Model the fold of this input.
Amino acid sequence: MKNKKNRKVFYISLLLIVVVLTLSGCPGTAFKGAILDGPRDIIIDVDNRVFNSQDAVNEWERGLGLDKITFTVTLKSGSETKEMLPADIDSTYNFTQVSIPVEGELISINAEGDHGSDKYTGTIDDKSPYDDYTGWEIFANVIKFKLGFQISDDIKNSYLTMDICPRGGNSVTLKADSGVTATADMKTDWAGTALTSRQIAIEPVFNENPKDLTFDVYTLIVDKDLRSIYFGPLNPGENGGYYEHYPWEENWTYEEITETGKQIGDKIYKLAEYNKNPLTAVEPMGTGTGYNSYLIDLTTETTDPVGKFLLIAVVLNYDKLSIPAKMNIIEIK
Done:
């Protein structure tokens, strides 16, 4: 009798393993929508520094000293290749866009960089589990990517990195000016009418080529600096307590920013979209303005917000994909 029970448990366990393997071993099969396979361009934003000398004096300027990069786009119907040389760098931005015309279902993209006889490679065929995109369907429908690199102590162990764009999280730096009127004191490139009290200029700095990239701004006025009060599970709060639950977090999901809000401490904070239409990454205040900052104007607020704080979230958009940058909070002056 005991052996029969053990046999039964074994068969049930085996069945569960088969079910799990069946469900988890077939990536992409859950998507039943249209898969892109028509003529289109695959866009790759290449970090210009990858061509910099390996011996550059400043560490942040060092690259792999590449002589060329060869991109291979693998499709179900075949493949397309394209080379990029140092002479192809677009110095307008920190990233140069490489456009590769394709037709067919995308399978993967490989990059191989040459430095003399040394070769550095990077491949992508899915999104990182750490990237939570809204609008994600399937890898085959992505059209924009980014090529970066990682330098190891032993330069021959360095490698190229391939990511899906747009890039959110810590990839975007948000500069902000609140209560700053003198141009010399400004952190942003604001060059419009001088700021007054309750006006804030923000400048998202993107870690990719900003062409055709748009963003939306979400804001909320709050009474206190939530970051300093609730940051980290072991940081003391203003009453001397420790906030192990619902601490300040810089990475909010798209849904938390645009819909549900997020709990910090004992309260849920919901933001509202500030701009009515998507803002272009280049000259968000309008073509011809000459600067890449955006103005948040709180001068018409019924209750004086000076001394309070502004939660600011930036959501990046490209094609069907949207991804948030890290949350920011600044004092209103």
